[in-house]
């Protein structure tokens, strides 16, 4: 009689043999569904992909109620890094096995509510490529053996998936450049005998500068992730920074020539910054039944920031600080400053009623640190997540640190990259 271990060993053998035959990222992700998950007897599983340079995981393969004919997914969602159980597993690069999701504030309701969840990240050379996430309607469903098995599948998948992602990115960049060159040739022929007005200048700049710049930035990003030569990293970073700065200059020029076009980075949003922070603090206060007193020092009304990621970091900080506050009241000071010789949005969170021990200071950003601190269970659950917040802030170019002396009131400082609107 076959044991569960025998079944899993056979699955691994068959999966390894077919993995090398797959020719696209979708082929690999659906192979996990078709050859592995369906045979394990799980009710539900979704495989997420994290595109290079992006901050949100995309649902790309599914088993169970979300699976539709023809490799389609019912009502696919995106999950930001650091958000929910899936986003936290991806950000911290750590498997999460949740026995009762009803007790975990990170749980995200997708198609149906389930009690058990197992999220296993797919990691290659320090980079998160995706997440295998399975749920079950019963509590305590997933075992340590299930986690070990899916981790093995993720590890087996990682190298092949990374190779295919890189190949598809290179092919896409090559196709974009070829299309840009072809379009430029057509434009030059059409405009050869014509004068250029402002709109024509903007159009020519967009074709002649933006497309090659995006290709340079994209290819540099690929090289930075793939290079094994430490001496090449700094030159590549210099090229990438220079290209990004030139890209921003071109965006500003295009905005001046064509003010109605409003070109913007797809990951950055121009927002009413104080209104945004007040709205985020309101969400945190509603969840934690507290109050956040905000003061702002000569802020411009609008700033361009990576709003989605910043909101996730702020929510985590606010909820953490409110949970540790004896009177459910904290203070937030917002001002402009400097971050790596560029503009930074500084947010200083203080809680005068919470004294920070040396042990807390040393471990607060450790993913395994238990921050219960003699709180009741409900408030204790709200204090988790600072490790993910710090990792996400740094991924988005910011800094998050705890500033306090021994037995001194807590002060958490978040500095986030920002830009003034191109007007």
Task: Please render the helix and strand layout as text.
Layout: H1 4-19, H2 25-40, E1 44-49, E2 56-63, E3 67-68, E4 72-73, E5 78-80, H3 84-92, E6 96-98, E7 116-124, E8 127-136, H4 144-191, H5 198-226, H6 230-257, E9 269-272, H7 273-288, E10 291-297, E11 302-305, H8 307-324, E12 329-339, E13 342-356, H9 358-363, H10 377-381, H11 386-395, E14 399-402, E15 408-417
Parallel strand pairs: 10-12
Antiparallel strand pairs: 1-2, 1-8, 2-5, 3-4, 6-7, 7-8, 9-11, 12-13, 13-15, 14-15
Helix pairs in contact: 1-2, 1-4, 2-4, 4-5, 5-6, 7-8, 8-11
Question: How does this structure look, described?
Answer:
The protein is an alpha+beta fold. It has three domains: 4-163, Beta-Lactamase (2-Layer Sandwich); 166-257; 269-417, Histidine kinase-like ATPase, C-terminal domain (Heat Shock Protein 90), CATH 3.30.565.10. Helices cover 48% and strands 23% of the residues. It has a six-stranded antiparallel sheet with strand order 5-2-1-8-7-6. The chain has a five-stranded mixed sheet with strand order 10-12-13-15-14. Strands 3-4 form a two-stranded antiparallel sheet. A hairpin with a 2-residue loop joins strand 12 (329-339) and strand 13 (342-356). Helix 2 packs antiparallel against helix 4 (144-191), helix 7 crosses helix 8 and helix 8 (307-324) packs antiparallel against helix 11 (386-395). The longest helix has 48 residues, at 144-191. It is globular, with a radius of gyration of 24 Å. Residues 255-266 and 375-383 have low confidence and may be disordered.
